[in-house]
Fold TIGR03013 family PEP-CTERM/XrtA system glycosyltransferase.
Amino acid sequence: MLRFLRRQSVRWLMLLGFCELMLLAISLCAATYLRYFLNADELAEFTRHLPERAMVFASIIVIGMVAMGQYQAHIRMTRFGLLARQAVAFVLGGFLLVVGYYVVPQAYVGRGVLAIALTLGFLLVMTLRLLFLQLVEVEALKRRVLILGAGTRAAQIHNQMRRRTDRRGFCVVGYVPHASETVAVPQEQLIRSGLPLSAYVLREQIDEVVVGVDDRRGHLPMDDLLECRQMGIAITDLTSFFEREAGRLQLTILDPSWLVFSGGFNGTPLRQLSKRCFDLVAASMLLLLCWPLMLLEILAIRLESGPGQPILYRQERVGAHGCTFQLLKFRSMRTDAERDGVARWASKNDDRVTRVGRISRKLRVDELPQLWNVLKGDMSIVGPRPERPQFVADLTTQIRYYSLRHCLKPGLAGWAQLSYPYGATVEEAAEKLKYDLFYVKNHNLLLDLLILIQTVEVVLFGRGAR
């Protein structure tokens, strides 16, 4: 069910999250004793239900850190950048706690305790993260991976997963070339031991063999691979390896048979029911939280454009199974933005965008009316973003498997929006499709929740907005 949990990097991050949860809970307990140790009566009062209060405090701060992308496996950032995001996460978590204490006064821990706990927790988490960043780079703790093949397909790992953040869960020992393929990886990474594959795997303590030969028909050492399996070595197809480690489907090595036999694409009635319930609950909660912001947006559009100008913008988009629907947005462009009737992608610093629209697009406020589309059932909270029919018609002819993204309802937020910036070309659309297909294939309730929480980071930092 939770296929993305198979990734080594995700398991490392789950361990990190659990350790940070415990440290934050300890921070509140320590803060309570530090604040009231001179007053026995107050100490007795505030230590009642202390474990429960500590876990609530820790959980809210961790949610804030998830929202700021602190648990993303492939995040690329300086240590100062990570520190800044952690600070924003603690501010966000502190704000949520203050609101929570106002709604549920029984959970209140005192301003002094909260301030001490936030400070202490920030320092402890920062220290743990610095140690964690050192620990995950230790080669001895990574899975040792051997690539069977050294041609065009196998070279995808060398070319597409070169960053240190891409290889936090594994290290590539080398590439075993096959006689029938042209070598496409650097010579220094080739393995020419002369030993049988199973013997080399045993000698080098390989944990996983990734099969990436260019032509598998009749060219695989099946006896050696079977012996490796019997020794407990994982044998993984190259496409599955990319899916697990990179969180995307690599289109250049994708074939229909793998899509048919690899699993995923959960469309059972139970999954459809859980997704619909999640959509209704999340959309209703977001409407209750965001209606003041929506009223401010309406007022701002009216003040800038004057009476008689439309507030909402309706546009035809492609939904599930290719059916079209009318998508709602707050108008962020001039009313004559497409007076010639030709559909255009938004460009950077697009002069068609109004002054109010520039701000609302940056903060994603213009997307809020789509909550009505979610309630109607045209859209989901999480899914591939809906595109215009003109774009879909063009992209379907130019990008293989593009139509697969329409097997689910389009979403207000998506895995591609977290993983890739705004796309305004065919090449960028193809890159985003890799992440859309990963979501379509692996979607589940927990992944939806994680994407929704992490979308807060996209909104606050304006990633991908145009």
Q: What stands out?
A: The radius of gyration is 26 Å. The chain has a mean pLDDT of 89.
